[in-house]
Amino acid sequence: MADARPRAGFRLYRPVPAACRPGDDGEPIVPTIWGTDAVHGHTNVVGAAIFPHNIGLGATRDADLLRRIGAATAVEIAATGIDWNFSPTVAVARDDRWGRTYESYSEDPRIVAPLGAALIEGLQGRKGTTEFLGKGHVAATAKHFFADGGTMQGVDQGDVNGDIEALKAIHAYPYPAAIAAGTEFVMASFNSINGVKMHGNKALLTDVLRGEMGFTGVVVGDWNAHGQIDGCTVSDCPQAINAGLDIYMVPDDWKALIENMVADVEDGTISMARLDEAVGRVLRAKYRLGLLGPDAKKPSDRAYAGDWSQLGSAGHRAIAREAVAKSQVILKNTGVLPIKAGANVLVAGSAADSIAKASGGWTLTWQGGTELDNDGKFPGATSIWQAIEAEAKAQGGKATLSADGAYSGRPDVAIVVFGEEPYAEFVGDRTTMVFADTEGLDLLRKYDAAGIPTVAVFLSGRPLWMNREMNAADAFVASWLPGSEGAGVSDILFGRREATGRLSFSWPAECGGAPVNGSQGALFQVGYGLGLAQKSGAAKLPEDCGYLSEGAAASWYDLGRLASGITAYGGDTRLVNLRGEGGGIVARGLDKDRQEDAREIVFGPGATLSLAQAGQGKGDYRILYNLAAQPAGKVTLTVGGNTIDITRNLALSAGKGWREMIITEQCAPTLGDRLSLTSTAPMTLQVARIVRQEMSDGAQCSF
């Protein structure tokens, strides 16, 4: 992770154990501070306890539990010599299509605020007591200021529009509680507010956060986010520090940034007073953390340092198990829960024995991934299957695992564990609320047809439209992303604990893309959840969803070839099979997944790339593309006579890997049979696939 390096007097000071003593040149030596994304436990480290993600913790409504989770996480962080955690996320997610929804405690800021404050108190210790930033505690970071959960269409790092006071009432609501709890750091958000990037928004970073809310700590940037400010690059951005940023998070280009900052101070672009203010805030935070002063100790000499027994300790796993149990939300139960003692239980689904799938993103790797299950990366963890097997046996019954759902002897009950694949941030962005993977649905319907009672255990980072699965199941449990302690799930299924989890997000009744908040469009509202003695869910839910019956895609370009009837042009020059040069365009072969299955297209200034279809075509456009760097000039898309400025959209997608551009009648009322892309400045774009497909009514444009 990026470390924070304050530069007093424009010098790069060496990170050494002892602080505030002179170096060889007589200058004071300031130790560096290291931050980590321990967002649901110290999960960058093998063997750590993996707690439920925030969406599950929101379902507990238990601030004391959050405080204990924060304290346990802090001790595990301290054991590895780290002083600073980039957590908690106090976003108020208002559109569940957002790929970071699971990092939010709730769509309701009144739920978010006390839980975020409690986690901060657990990480840092209670403000005003001797435990504050003392033994086994680390600095917390409230993030991302602000409105990261309010972007249009749930697009990560996108734009948030509206009256600023109305936006503050929702999205800034958790920050006064976080500040009162003593958070040492606040992280600025990637998103824009009414078109202005937060990292360059002085009215909000300085006037609101500091002036109105009274925050006196350190404002830290997010990963290279300052480079998205108009007029900035990653290595040169005085606008950010002038707006109120105290630390740039710049993992690779920090040397160039320092050089440019020196020049900016020397020519008055950045005042010396503003630089001293930022450096002073960082130094005060380091002092409070014990990194400066006569009693400063190097990381290996601090409390818990190198005490690996703290990682995934029995006590921490017990807290995690409690959190899992309290986060389970029963949405349907016709009487199959709790599972009766002595039952013969079949456990099906590929997720049943997967710690990685139960943990989601931000687990050992940024995106997480089920491949981690095969590498021995989860010592001491208990999968949902393992927990069910042990509990069934303890209650005089037995359990059998069948990942593919096959069985020989008829079970008394079948538990189907299924859900979303792991993801993090923009990779998890969606355009609809449809869960299209039918593994769980097929298994539930199979058992339902055989008359076998079924329990659906759904692993997800957000509520999704699950009407089909709910109809096929006798009980449906929203398990969220529970983490390493699957016994918390079995505690509810077998009635070892009462089911107290209640929705902190409303559950969608429709499969489309409209955000669901409160009662509008909700199948289940915030606060819904069944106790084990309650029965509900006999009524059949509607299963109609246009997104499930979208027309077949008609290929224009795929696997390195243009389809018959499709012609490509660089300006007025035909590019045979989308290769060659002409009109300022250079198109060459590119290996994406196999040899030359994609194209790299280099635009000269003012160049236009066009693709045209002979004859009458129909359907929306879907383009799989990759843009390594932000556009240096204006980029427009012309389709069916409509010209759309997509410069900002491409800037948001730059550097994020392969993404899909969707063009519908929502933004281009006449789609036509010709698609053109024009860039006023040099640009390199990679394209792997272009298709036209009839999408359902209400499908929205996405770039």
Description:
There is one protein chain. The longest helix has 17 residues, at 63-79. Strands 18, 19, 22, 23, 24, 26, 29 and 31 form an 8-stranded antiparallel β-sheet that branches. With 703 residues, the protein is an alpha/beta fold. It is globular and about 75 Å long. Strand 27 and strand 28 form a beta hairpin. Helix 2 (63-79) runs antiparallel to helix 10 (314-327) and helix 3 (109-124) packs parallel to helix 5 (174-180). 23% of the residues lie in helices and 20% in strands.
Write the layout of secondary structure elements.
Layout: E1 3-4, E2 33-36, H1 54-58, H2 63-79, E3 84-85, H3 109-124, E4 141-145, E5 159-160, H4 164-172, H5 174-180, E6 185-188, E7 192-193, E8 196-197, H6 202-212, E9 218-220, H7 238-243, H8 254-266, H9 272-288, H10 314-327, E10 329-333, E11 344-348, H11 355-359, H12 384-394, E12 398-402, E13 413-419, H13 439-449, E14 454-459, H14 467-472, E15 475-480, H15 487-493, E16 507-508, E17 522-524, E18 554-558, E19 561-562, E20 566-570, E21 573-574, E22 580-582, E23 585-590, E24 598-603, E25 607-613, E26 620-626, E27 635-639, E28 642-645, H16 647-653, E29 659-663, E30 674-679, E31 683-693
Parallel strand pairs: 2-3, 4-6, 5-7, 6-9, 11-12, 11-13, 13-14, 14-15
Antiparallel strand pairs: 1-2, 7-8, 10-15, 16-17, 18-19, 18-31, 20-21, 20-25, 22-23, 23-24, 24-31, 25-30, 26-29, 26-31, 27-28, 27-30
Helix pairs in contact: 2-3, 2-10, 3-5, 10-15, 12-15
